[in-house]
Amino acid sequence: MIITVRKENDVAILDLSGNLVLGDPVSAFREKIGEVLEAGTKAVAINLASVSFVDSSGIGAMLGARTSVEAAGGQCRYFAALPRVIHTLETTRMHEVLNLHPSEASALASFDATS
């Protein structure tokens, strides 16, 4: 799992690449979320465009990231998931819990709408 962080105004955007699965990928994701929160970021958008597979541990990490960001007084969005990942999230009904958006623009606009 490769994770890069970039900023767009006050939003930290995490670009994920690889499979979000049990082991190092999930650990790296959790660690990066912690770093972003420690830096004081309150708005986090997570780009899933290059994530081709998510297992149950990955889904747990996604939910945990949302919970951690919200517990810190922030907001978390996910965007640009591939059809296979969307199917997995729909099968587990996590699409109802995670704040999924079709595009980066949509995710970023949603922060302005709820701020």
- The shape is globular
The CATH architecture designation is 2-Layer Sandwich
Overall pLDDT metric: 95
Q: Please give the radius of gyration in angstroms.
A: 13 Å
Task: Give a short synopsis of this structure.
The protein has about 120 residues and is an alpha/beta fold.
Output the keywords:
globular; five-stranded mixed β-sheet; 44% helix; 31% strand; Transcription Regulator spoIIAA; single chain; 4 helices; alpha/beta; 115 residues
Any overview of this molecule?
The protein is an alpha/beta fold and 115 residues long. The chain has one domain (2-108): STAS domain (Transcription Regulator spoIIAA, 2-Layer Sandwich). Helix content is 44%, strand content 31%. The chain is built from 4 helices and 5 strands. It has helices at 24-38, 56-71, 83-91, 104-114, and strands spanning 2-8, 11-20, 43-54, 75-79, 100-101. Strands 1-2-3-4-5 form a 5-stranded mixed beta sheet. A hairpin with a 2-residue loop joins β1 (2-8) and β2 (11-20). α1 (24-38) runs parallel beside α2 (56-71). The longest helix is centred in the middle third of the chain and has 16 residues, at 56-71. It is globular, with a radius of gyration of 13 Å. The protein starts with a strand and ends with a helix. The relative contact order is 0.17. The model has no long low-confidence stretch (mean pLDDT 95).
